[in-house]
Design a protein that fits this description.
alpha/beta, VC0802-like, Rossmann fold, eight-stranded mixed β-sheet, 26% helix
């Protein structure tokens, strides 16, 4: 069966990698999407453990022109059982354009469902499932959303920092360091803990979303006899995360507790210039600092501490504002530099390797 994961821009390759890691199946990437074949049992694992995805749909096809979309071959009994639905059109400019597409697709759906002698109605407030039409700039992807909600938000983000980010971006930053389970990683200026928590969720294989969530797949006949199989948890995870603000550490600890990874994240209030006294020389394989404007003048001290703490050939990831200009320390080689925009926030990322 074919599925499509939708992601925010820039997350395509990471999504492809994550599908391979969790399901051991390959995925084909498109702008803001990854397409793959899997069983319903497998896709439930991706739903609960995937960190890069924004939505996951059962694919009903993709077309460059919606007029070419044929829904008569769809086995609607897999989705319809006296059900209600709503057509959600994404990434199309203009509400009138989105409404026109929704009406066109809904008409095609009703025509196909009627031919198969099934009952289906529209409910704009509380539909049993969402029918997603997503335009990625090249093609229209269409399918039934198995969650019924956007997945990149996280329930654990209760105590937030002004410089916080959503879960998928925190996961992207954690993976961008090169972090793998078994590595020692230090996350500095931890703020509300999102990056550290996403790293811990990835390494421990704790579920991202609770089984108590009312996901829409539970109302689809396709999944009526499918059981979610939990992945084995890795309990030997320890992530070091520090901040010089007691308020930030308290917030991060509370968020980590809600996420179920408090025991995997060692959150401590430590001043930047005291890090070398709190940890061993060459202790870390990866170090990450998210530097906001108020801490930009601490760059030299960051480099001083990293030189002591980072292992030879270890990596340093700096996250800052788009217009921030930095120099690379003499003991590091710049691997990549990139700009990233998300939700009106613009980031610049420097990834370095210690010589």
């Amino acid at each position: 069966m074919r599925f499509v994961s939708f992601v925010n821009p820039g997350m395509e390759e990471l999504c492809q990698q994550e599908i391979q890691e969790i399901l051991t199946v390959s995925a084909k990437t498109y702008p803001q999407a990854a397409e793959f074949d899997a069983s319903p049992e497998q896709v439930l694992q991706l739903l609960y453990y995937g960190q890069s995805m924004r939505r996951i749909i059962v694919s009903l096809g993709k077309k460059k022109n919606l007029d070419d979309l044929d829904l008569n071959s769809v086995q609607w009994k897999d989705f319809v059982s006296n059900s209600s639905f709503k057509v959600e059109v994404e990434n199309v400019k203009g509400i009138e354009n989105r409404l026109a597409i929704a009406k066109k697709v809904a008409g095609k759906v009703f025509a196909a469902v009627e031919k198969q002698k099934l009952s289906l109605s529209i409910d704009l407030k509380k539909p049993d499932f969402l029918l997603i039409v997503y335009y990625n700039g090249e093609e229209y992807f269409m399918g039934v959303d198995i969650a019924g909600m956007e997945l990149h938000s996280r329930a654990y983000r209760v105590f937030t920092h002004s410089a916080s980010c959503k879960g998928d971006l925190g996961y992207y930053f954690a993976r961008k360091t090169g972090y793998k389970p078994g590595n020692n990683v230090l996350i500095g200026f931890v703020k509300d803990g999102v990056i550290a928590i996403e790293a811990a969720l990835f390494a421990s294989r704790m579920p991202i979303h609770s089984t108590k969530n009312a996901f829409s797949y539970q109302k689809l006949p396709l999944f009526s006899s499918v059981k979610y199989q939990a992945l084995a948890t890795n309990t030997s995870v320890s992530i070091a995360a520090v901040d010089d603000s007691a308020q930030n550490i308290t917030a991060a600890r509370k968020n980590a507790q809600i996420a179920g990874v408090r025991k995997f994240v060692d959150l401590q209030k430590i001043l930047l210039d005291e890090l070398s006294g709190a940890f061993h020389e060459h202790e870390f394989d990866q170090i990450l600092f998210q530097v906001t404007t108020k801490d930009e003048d601490k760059l030299n001290e960051i480099y001083h501490q990293v030189k002591y703490l980072l292992k030879p050939t270890g990596t340093l990831l700096l996250i800052g504002r788009e217009s921030w200009e930095i120099s690379v320390p003499s003991y590091c080689k710049l691997i990549s530099e990139e700009a990233l925009e998300r939700g009106g926030n613009k980031y610049k990322i420097w990834w370095m390797r210690k010589k």
